[in-house]
Design brief:
Rossmann fold; Alpha-Beta Plaits; six-stranded mixed β-sheet; 32% helix
């Protein structure tokens, strides 16, 4: 799949001396959904702002569909829709006026049918004549997306799009993102909600302290970095792990009622037979056995805690 955005050796140091980005290299594929994860202050918004031409990089280059974002700013920016975290539109304008104005800013001719479709997809059509100040928080969030889509961009940046919104609205937005991807739009999503990345993304990028720690296919990331756990519920509680079982690296839960064995998910086989045999030799009987696998959230927390 060809790249639509190429980021090379990108760095940003503010006048205060704070380095927000450190030598970031990233290729974003046309038509994919890329989720950028990272704690507050990690550099996610700075990266997006540089790509969109809002912030000037200290070093490096960004190419958007072959256009340098500095030397060919207008051509690059016309391909991008940005949904920021905060609403900055005039509160006294109507929904229809602000979306129409956003389209005109990019030199697009009027297209009422297209704008109508966007507003209907976002459940804003009935509010098209309402002033922005009269909208609920969720409706304002939808309006940000409508504005970003008004000029028919090929790339859509969603910077924390569902922060502070209710679960139903979040799921509606997920549905819209899927529709946009099907239409060929490339989507870059920053989020604090790990389940959003796990649900939506094709690839996951993790940023911490201005550095891009990794970029990986979602399923491959979970395969490589995930852990599996085999939990044995014992028929009778024990006070300690018997000596015969010390070599398996088992952990005993606080009340002594179960044993847990943790192993890498990329291991093709686990010698469960040997483990069960050792349990029998130790005189332990179990009444239930089940396995669990670490989530994307577990992986993210471990990466941010220890980037190495």
């Amino acid at each position: 799949m060809p790249n639509i955005i190429s980021i090379s050796n990108l760095s940003k140091v503010y006048e205060s001396g704070f380095q927000a980005l450190k030598d970031v290299n990233l290729d974003i594929r046309r038509g994919e959904i890329l989720a950028l994860l990272g704690p507050n202050g990690a550099g996610k918004t700075t990266l997006i702002s540089i790509i969109c031409g809002i912030v000037t990089a200290s070093a490096g280059k960004v190419m958007v569909d072959g256009h340098d974002t500095v030397q060919a700013f207008r051509q690059a920016r016309s391909l991008i829709g940005l949904v920021p975290q905060e609403l900055t539109t005039d509160a006294f304008e109507s929904v229809w006026s602000t979306v129409s104005f956003s389209r005109g800013l990019f030199g697009k001719p009027p297209n009422p049918a297209y704008l109508e479709r966007i507003l209907k997809d976002l459940s804003l059509w009935d509010k098209r004549h309402s002033k922005i100040m009269m909208l609920s928080g969720g409706m304002k969030r939808r309006l940000l997306i409508a504005k970003a889509l008004s000029h028919e961009p090929q790339i859509l940046f969603l910077d924390e799009p569902t922060a502070g919104v209710d679960v139903n609205l979040r799921k509606d937005m997920w549905d819209l993102v899927r529709q946009l991807k099907q239409s060929g739009v490339t989507i870059i999503l920053t989020t604090h909600y790990i389940e959003e990345a796990e649900e939506m993304a094709d690839r996951i990028g993790v940023i911490n302290k201005g550095q891009l720690i990794l970029v990986e296919e979602k399923h491959e990331l979970m395969r490589k970095l995930g852990k599996k756990q085999l939990t044995l519920q014992l028929q009778q509680s024990v006070e300690a792990i018997p000596a015969e079982l010390q070599g398996f690296g088992l952990t005993l839960n606080p009340d002594g009622s179960s044993l847990t064995y943790t192993y890498d998910s990329q291991e093709e086989q686990v010698d469960v037979t040997a483990l069960l045999g050792a349990l029998q030799q130790a005189g332990l009987k179990f009444k239930d056995i089940h396995t669990t696998q670490s989530s994307l959230e577990d992986i993210f927390v471990n990466l941010v805690r220890d980037p190495a």
